[in-house]
Specification:
Length: about 200
């Protein structure tokens, strides 16, 4: 699972760490940054070299440190995830711009389309957020229906597997979708979290 593979702190842990950091004590800010470092580094190293991943990790941590006072502790996970994605996007655009300058006018190869890169990043992060939401925000009973939905099962297949009626499945799916809509609002406008531009 993506959520586990990047060793990202649980949402409630991040909330506590951000609240501590907002108290202004250096040691609390250090705790927050130390908790974020492994997940950020793994996120970047999955896509880039170790040196580049380290550079982007440092850049993301600097941005997060500068924004600590503005972060809504309850939505810290979404905010920090958005910072991480934006740093990666900026890096891709810089690399593509540098490559484009180096390409001879006669070269037939075009630099990669940054839109495709952005879409891939958004999709991976959205999958991670959906998995996390299913594990932490959706209660048992609804969770099994959500997993069936994510696995592409039909209403009748989910009903047969859980030994409940298709009407019950449809009702639960409505509740699951409402929870996912609420929890994944940040992904509708990925550059704005809690009213703040990232």
């Amino acid at each position: 699972m993506l959520y586990a593979s990047f060793k990202w702190p649980a949402a409630e842990v991040l909330t506590r760490l951000v609240r501590g950091a907002q108290a202004g004590k250096t040691i609390e800010i250090e705790r927050l940054l130390q908790a974020l470092r492994p997940g950020l580094f793994a996120f970047y190293q999955h896509r880039l070299s170790a040196d580049a991943a380290e550079d982007l990790t440092q850049l993301a941590l600097i941005r997060i440190t500068g924004a600590v006072a503005r972060i809504d502790p309850v939505r810290a996970d979404s905010y920090i995830s958005t910072v991480a994605r934006n740093v990666l996007r900026s890096n891709y655009r810089t690399v593509l711009r540098d490559r484009a300058r180096e390409v001879d006018e006669c070269a037939s190869e075009e630099p990669a389309d940054p839109t495709t890169t952005d879409a891939r990043i958004e999709y991976a992060d959205l999958v991670r957020a959906i998995h996390r939401t299913c594990l932490t925000k959706i209660q048992p009973g609804l969770r099994e229906v959500a997993i069936g939905l994510l696995e592409g099962e039909s209403t009748n297949q989910i009903a047969a597997k859980l030994q409940i009626s298709p009407i019950t499945v449809r009702t639960r799916l409505m509740r699951v979708r409402a929870i996912l809509r609420r929890e994944l609002r940040a992904y509708a406008e990925p550059d704005v979290i809690g009213g703040h531009q990232v």
